[in-house]
Amino acid sequence: MSLPPLPTQSPDIAWPTHAWPQAPLPAAMDRASFDRLMEEGFAATPEDALGETHALVVVQHGQLIHEQYGNDFGPDVTCPSWSKAKSITQALVGMMVGEGKMDIHAKADAPEWADPKDPRHAITLDQLLRMSSGLKFREEYSPENPSDVIDMLWGKGKEDVAHFAASFPLAHEPDSFFNYSSGTSNIVSRAIARAIGKSGADFEAFMHERLFDKLGMTSVRPKFDAAGTFIGSSFCFATARDFARFGLLYLRDGIWEGERLLPEGWVDYSRTPTWQQEDCTDDPYGAHWWLGIAGPGTFSANGYEGQFTVAIPDIDAVIVRCGKTPGDKVAIKAWIRAIADCFR
User: Fold this and answer.
1) Whole-prediction pTM
2) Domain boundaries, the chain
3) pLDDT tens-digit map of 81-118
4) Buried residues in 174-193 as b, exposed as e (16+ CB within 10 A)
5) How many Å apart are CA 303 and CA 236, to the nearest integer?
6) CATH homologous superfamily for 31-341?
């Protein structure tokens, strides 16, 4: 399929490695609607459909044009990634693919499936990244309901999240069923660690040296389990500005200050739709990135309780929202889409 082109960085705009270049909101935008949306988003309470917005950062043409924070929050306050960490994990895979240390079409490196007779043996890294491995896993966040993700992060799986997730049986043939699963992201995270021979503090140093430091993401704090695996499904704290830097890397096709950090074609791979069964109720999905929440061609890192880093190619923008939205995210997704529409 044809993907909308990604914008390039204007040579007269500095990269935000050390500080964000700033610009005013454009005169041609729908300012009245934008102001109304800001009032609604920051006035909402936990009981409202929008929930609490703690931080909003809007970047256009590589420049910071708007940021706003809730009470007790500000530019230096770190916010949880929740599942936005999955897209960071995907970036690390891309780097290893670029170096020839990982192959998305090869069998995933999971010791639990090493036996060729194991029905999971043929699962590929691509199928894990596209949530199409077929592994049984319940992505449920209500404590009153049976939940594999809660058990993995806070229960019997918390000491070794990847082993816990990789121990599940197949519920479907690989590549025949879409099932969003935080467990698969932790299997991927461990596979990266095995590919580079690093875990725990050494893996964290690798993340900073190869990715975060390159982008100027100085606030980032990833979390690891007792086995030394980066909990790449859920736990990577950062400021809203630093999440925006990560979004800009993808909007700029994996290039930063003239250096290609992600291999050519990796961002397009990220935003190419994954097949989903007809009765799937999830939003469209790419490869560890969600698709379309701010309009056609947009792609985003989404997290629990309404964390979003949204890349919007048609208006050359990144929108980051950090907050706490209960229940379904229909209203907050519509709010973000409406913000993007103000610039169209």
Assistant:
1) 0.97
2) 31-341
3) 999 999 999 999 999 999 999 999 999 999 999 999 99
4) bbebbbbbbbbbbbbbbbbb
5) 11
6) DD-peptidase/beta-lactamase superfamily (3.40.710.10)
